[in-house]
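Exercise 3.2. Students should predict the tertiary structure of the chain below and write it as structure tokens, then compare their answer with the key that follows.

Predict this chain's 3D structure.
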Amino acid sequence: MTSSSFAPDLYCVMGNPVAHSRSPAIHARFAELTGESIAYERRLVPMDGFAQGVREFVAQGGRGCNVTVPFKIDAPGLATESSARVQLAGAANTLTFRPDGSIYADNTDGLGLVADITRNAGVSLAGRDVLLVGAGGAAAGVLGPLLLAGVRHITVANRTLEKAQALVQSHSALATLQKSELVALTPQAVEADFDVIINATATSLAGAGVPVAPRVLRPGSLAYDMMYGPAAQGFLDWARQHGATPRDGLGMLVEQAAEAFLLWRGVRPPSAQVLQEMQQAA
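Answer key:
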């Protein structure tokens, strides 16, 4: 019996909103290039229905799930076992549903971000000053990997200062270990300028203004929005107008998807090739 006689393994991305997600196209291309038999779909779940959505998906034979806005903080609560990255971040973006009924949570966001900045954009993070805007699940998922990449200083800027302080507190031991400086501020209080600015807020999705002042940019700073497509356009235009190098989160999306695919299938897909194809098609 050939493998084609069997139904493909089922995966999805869950979020609200989720219609904009390009994850299905990315995973379909990964499957094509690696010869893996998977089906990957979008699942819109109600704001209060994430746990129920996961249960239903598992009951339908789901093998794994990517988690996007706003459920990354909720995801670890459903897991039987969590990676060290999830324990540090308090957020997960990748769930694996094991045959014995257990659920493994991981967070590939930070790995994807660091890979995109250092490999695809060719910007070294070692010894750099970074401004991370936001303190929700997206920011939480990338702070640890940014520290591990050897940055010199990170300011976490968030409208609610307490959330930024809590994120800094949970990462303070790692920052000390890495000899990195880590501080929390409100966006208005940020006076310094930075080599890399990362927008991890959902302001882009809401079409809201850029949450920080242009003074945070150095000439040629990398200004990175974790969103991609039309949602990131406002931030990218702002960065360009003020002499920074803009980059959207498409590369991060592809790279974090590659890490999830590796977790699920044991095969590393050619992420750089898929990113290039997607950029050319845009």
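Discussion points: The chain is about 40% helix and 20% strand. The longest strand covers residues 217-225.
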